[in-house]
Amino acid sequence: MSGMVMAASALGDRALGRQVHCQILRLGFGAYAFTGSPLVDMYAKMGLIGDAKRVFDEMEGKNVVMYNTMITGLLRCKMVAEARGVFEAMADRDSITWTTMVTGLTQNGLQSEALDVFRRMRAEGVGIDQYTFGSILTACGALAASEEGKQIHAYTIRTLYDDNIFVGSALVDMYSKCRNIRLAEAVFRRMTCKNIISWTAMIVGYGQNGCGEEAVRVFSEMQRDGIKPDDFTLGSVISSCANLASLEEGAQFHCMALVSGLRPYITVSNALVTLYGKCGSIEDAHRLFDEMPFHDQVSWTALVSGYAQFGKAKETMDLFEKMLLKGVKPDGVTFIGVLSACSRSGLVEKGRSYFHSMQKDHGIVPLDDHYTCMIDLYSRSGRLKEAEEFIRQMPRCPDAIGWATLLSACRLRGDMEIGKWAAENLLKTDPQNPASYVLLCSMHASKGEWSEVAQLRRGMRDRQVKKEPGCSWIKYKNKVHIFSADDQSHPFSGTIYEKLQWLNSKMVEEGYKPDVSSVLHDVADAEKVHMLSNHSEKLAIAFGLIFVPEDMPIRVVKNLRVCVDCHNATKFISKITGRDILVRDAVRFHKFSNGICSCGDFCTNKSRSLQTKGESAFANSSMQFGIRIVHDFYISLLTLVYQSGRCLVAIWVLDGNVSHVKGIFLAVLLGQGIAEVTGCMPKNPSMARAILGLRHRTTCLHTGTPVPDLHIQEMLLKQTDNARAAVRGKAKLDQLEIDAVTPLYEGCRPEDTRLKVTLMALEMKRYFADPKATKLLRCHADREEKKREDDANDPEINKKDKMLSHPKDESQ
Prior knowledge:
Blueprint: H1 2-11, H2 14-27, H3 33-45, H4 49-58, H5 64-76, H6 80-89, H7 95-107, H8 111-123, H9 130-143, H10 146-158, H11 165-177, H12 181-190, H13 196-208, H14 212-224, H15 231-244, H16 247-260, H17 266-278, H18 282-291, H19 297-309, H20 313-325, H21 332-345, H22 348-360, H23 368-380, H24 384-393, H25 400-413, H26 416-429, H27 434-446, H28 450-462, E1 471-476, E2 479-484, H29 493-509, H30 525-533, H31 536-547, E3 554-558, H32 564-577, E4 581-584, E5 589-593, E6 596-597, H33 610-625, E7 634-637, E8 641-643, E9 646-655, E10 663-671, H34 675-678, H35 685-690, E11 699-701, H36 710-728, H37 753-762, H38 771-793, H39 795-805
Parallel strand pairs: 3-4
Antiparallel strand pairs: 1-2, 1-3, 4-5, 5-6, 7-9, 8-9, 9-10, 10-11
Helix pairs in contact: 1-2, 1-3, 2-3, 3-4, 3-5, 4-5, 5-6, 5-7, 6-7, 7-8, 7-9, 8-9, 9-10, 9-11, 10-11, 11-12, 11-13, 12-13, 13-14, 13-15, 14-15, 15-16, 15-17, 16-17, 17-18, 17-19, 18-19, 19-20, 19-21, 20-21, 21-22, 21-23, 22-23, 23-24, 23-25, 25-26, 25-27, 26-27, 27-28, 29-31, ...
């Protein structure tokens, strides 16, 4: 009868199990231990813990096996308190009892209590076997308790269990989780006998510690030893390729999964989705996801995180909502992906809603990573005061990453007050973190306060704090090529620098101007330009342009965030060379194609002066539209930036030339009201006019040009709200007059016809897409050019210019 019980348990057949139990009772075997233990085990495995307890309580003359079975069942059903009660009630405990308790507590996340039970076990002199060692080492790894782990390792040597394959694998896993990969490697190399578990533990350990190259190398060794990988091993090495952004090797493992028949396993499929997402092939990741027969929580989270890394907030949120509709419960990692997507697209209200929903609707307690995402959400959008208020209302102080996130935003926005507060707290939280010093140096350098910069650097030297050197790498023919700034160590350095020099000259011709504000050294501008031109990512991109075939994208990974100048330069390089360039930095993915970045320049959005913004817009327009207009007049038509269904159009009218933008007489930031419904440019001309809703107040910065009064600004904002309300309500837009641009005439000199030409271009049907608008601008440019030529040939004007350029010496 006990065999029948075990068969029902293995099949998971509750009806059969109950029938067998009834038969046992009919035959009068219900009180015997040899049938009672299997029944308790069966009911516990089926989740019928109440029936298991009833059988246990009705048993007479319970033995140790019966107690052990009951403890195992209770711990399996997460009834830790009841299991502890049964354990303490036992008069006699054997090694299996103690091991069961240690293992169960570890599996229930109570690793500290598992260590306490292990200490009691040793104090009572109970013999410890390989299974006990394996369980307690797992607990040490989960707690990252390196010292306790080393003591247990020493104990395994004394008891001659260190050579046991099960204990050796557990030691490798423990040291890996304790971030001591060298000791893990030493244990692994000393093992005389290894199985698939041992090899997998070492591969996973390398991956967890950021040693992806070593993980791939160990996997190759395992294959040479004739050990076939299982789905978990293959999934682990693919995950290492994903962390390396090594699509070439990852694709090879993809082929291996297909050949070996492991592709359908969900562990392998999830790893492949993660691989293609982290390598910038989000379309391939989604295709693989769709091909999967079954999706678990990890599958959805992998794809959500992939879209989030690209800053595709709309796709991320749509996928998240679909996940909920499928009945898949999100975890904390899923919400990190959603919140980061909102952060990278500036969707503050959406992000705030998801953060509250995470706690209220899903019962997930926010961790440091979630709070950091919210700090980043407010900070990136320029709401530094709200970020400060959010931090002050947090139940605990942010970790070092949270403070560094706020400090980084303060550097971009130039907010010294909140920046100093963030820096002070960052130093308290992590005194050896170089981020606080570097970001503060950047803030002072941007204001020209070089004495403060020198003082901060002296503080770094005194405290022996070293800045993490920036480096970029690119993989070509299964070899990783690593570059640092001004790197001369590469065998092809000469060719790389020649290519870079050629790119720099071409970029300058296209209107590129280095952003020297990124240089934190008090040197001449020429030296700053030289320092910028040799940044690590530029060297890696130049290498890729030389060696990577033209039909393949160039994939570069950087350990730090890409600086503003390199971001702008890479856009120019992609336009000049016609190559797709994918850069994965410490924050997100950037896909540069034809002069446009997938992030929509959101990551480089600085609250700088309008003068600096104007220079950037001036460079972007000639690159993206190829409209060359005379130097004394230029209008920048920035490409529409799609970000999670919200589209921003920046229009800058500049007065100056490529080298020196001397003044800006108008700066208007317009928002697309229709985007909240359609997520794309509207085709209806009336809807196109609704786009002209003013998003921020108008600012006129020109000599003699008054700033529009408050009444005009309020009127424009009211018109914008009306337009958006009409769009949301699907009103008849043909009757809606949006004349937001008309009052702007009042802010300009009557004789200035250039602005009128600009406004006429904006009022064209289909907005920028209408060729008439471009033609109008070109015609005006031709007229301006002709006027310049006529003025140059006019002797009276030339005479006046000479008098102005050579004023009379008053001493004469």
